[in-house]
Amino acid sequence: QIDHTRLLPGDLLLYATHPDGGKKLIASGIRLFQRKDYGFDDARWHHVGMYVQGHVIVEAVRQKGVVVSPVDARFADHLVRVRRLRLSKGEYRKLGHLMSDRAKSLCGTPYDIRDVAWQSADLPRNAHQGYVCSTLYIDVLEWAIDTLGERAPQLWDTVSRLRLLTKRGVVQLPALLSHSANFDDVAVGWL
Known about the structure:
Number of helices: 7
Mean pLDDT: 77
Shape: globular
Distance between the termini: 5 Å
């Protein structure tokens, strides 16, 4: 079980199927696609979740859409990397709580692979009807920064860079989020 005391609302969790976890068709496809532009250490991540608090994450999953899940649910058969935006602790706490509230409000939104096309075409966030895991995280981050407004100019630069890079393909977002210098890794212990 993970030591939840080190997690903060808004933390990004990247998942990769554990080597003993068997072959997963979609995960394998995402990894293969990402290896065109990223090294193995970044390309192996194929799923994204966001810690909200209380030992739970919000994620977009294929059969269920946007859901709240126990933070430990995937740890038995997945490798996990925890990342946090590079901000002061105070800035991050404000942003993380906004992100957490927004993500929870989206529960029940359907999973929609077409979101990849909407995001790649840079259409407004209301133009699509659902999410994939990584676009959920980026949209929640963008919404939270927009809500903070003028108080967060350095964050707009982060989102702008992430949005620009998504033009190359949203399927690559797990690798991009792993590779991004805008995030620091969070050392998470085990109980």
